[in-house]
């Protein structure tokens, strides 16, 4: 069974963070420059929330495209659902669908280990299916034929 820790290991450890007091404009610039869809919001070394393009789009819509002097704190999700490194991929999929979450922080106790995205999940599932498919093909290819079984 595929675990979150395995997905993080393949994904790598690059993590982009912001603080709650960062101006929205600066967070938007970081997300755009790094081509990422979320920022983990950290305060005093602890997870304080998540900021995704969903919150930014809502804010821009409500403010006619202007970020103004607003900070990340005013729009971030301050109670994001999180998972542990031992959580199964199936459970992450269920949570993502149930909570409409495209990005889920991975916490090992109070320590932030990374973020799993919907894209990461799709990539991991495709890779796992390809591996399983190759194993089944190898198994079928090595299947003893009727003539081999009869001569034994």
Report on this structure:
This protein is an alpha+beta fold. The protein has a single domain, classed as CBS-domain (Roll). The chain has six helices and five strands, in the order αβαββααββαα. The strands form two sheets. A three-stranded mixed β-sheet has the order 1-2-3. A two-stranded antiparallel sheet has the order 4-5. It is elongated and about 75 Å long. The protein starts with a helix and ends with a helix. The relative contact order is 0.17.
Strand/helix succession = HEHEEHHEEHH
What class would the helix/strand composition place it in?
alpha+beta
Number of domains: 1
> What is the general shape?
elongated
Helix content: 40-55%
Instruction: Give the strand tally.
Output: 5
Biggest sheet features: 3 strands, mixed
CATH class: Alpha Beta
> What is Rg?
21 Å
How is the largest sheet built, in terms of strand order?
Answer: 1-2-3
| CA distance, first residue to last residue | 37 Å
| Percentage of residues in DSSP E strands | 15-25%
What is the annotated CATH architecture?
A: Roll
* Stretches with pLDDT under 50, minimum 5 residues: none
* Averaged pLDDT: 90
- DSSP helical segment count: 6
Keywords:
Diverse_CBS-Domain, 152 residues, CBS_dom, CBS_dom_sf, CBS-domain, CBS domain, 6 helices, CBS domain-containing protein
Topology (elements, then pairings):
Layout: H1 4-11, E1 17-18, H2 24-34, E2 38-43, E3 46-52, H3 53-62, H4 89-99, E4 103-108, E5 111-117, H5 118-141, H6 146-151
Parallel strand pairs: 1-2
Antiparallel strand pairs: 2-3, 4-5
Provide a quick synopsis of the model.
The chain is an alpha+beta fold and 152 residues long. The protein has 6 helices and 5 strands; from the N terminus they run H-E-H-E-E-H-H-E-E-H-H.
């Amino acid at each position: 069974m595929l675990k979150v820790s395995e997905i993080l290991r393949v994904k790598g450890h690059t993590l982009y963070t912001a603080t709650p007091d960062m101006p929205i404009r600066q967070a938007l610039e970081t997300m755009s420059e790094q081509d990422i869809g979320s920022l983990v919001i950290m305060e005093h070394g602890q997870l304080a929330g998540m900021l995704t393009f969903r919150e930014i789009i809502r804010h821009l819509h409500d403010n006619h495209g202007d970020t103004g002097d607003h900070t990340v704190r005013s729009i971030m999700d301050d109670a994001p659902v999180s998972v542990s490194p031992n959580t199964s991929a199936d459970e992450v999929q269920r949570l993502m669908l149930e909570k409409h979450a495209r990005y889920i922080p991975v916490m090992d106790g109070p320590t932030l280990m990374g973020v799993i995205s919907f894209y990461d999940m799709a990539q991991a599932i495709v890779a796992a299916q390809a591996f399983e498919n190759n194993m089944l093909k190898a198994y079928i290819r090595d299947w003893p034929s009727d003539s081999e079984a009869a001569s034994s």
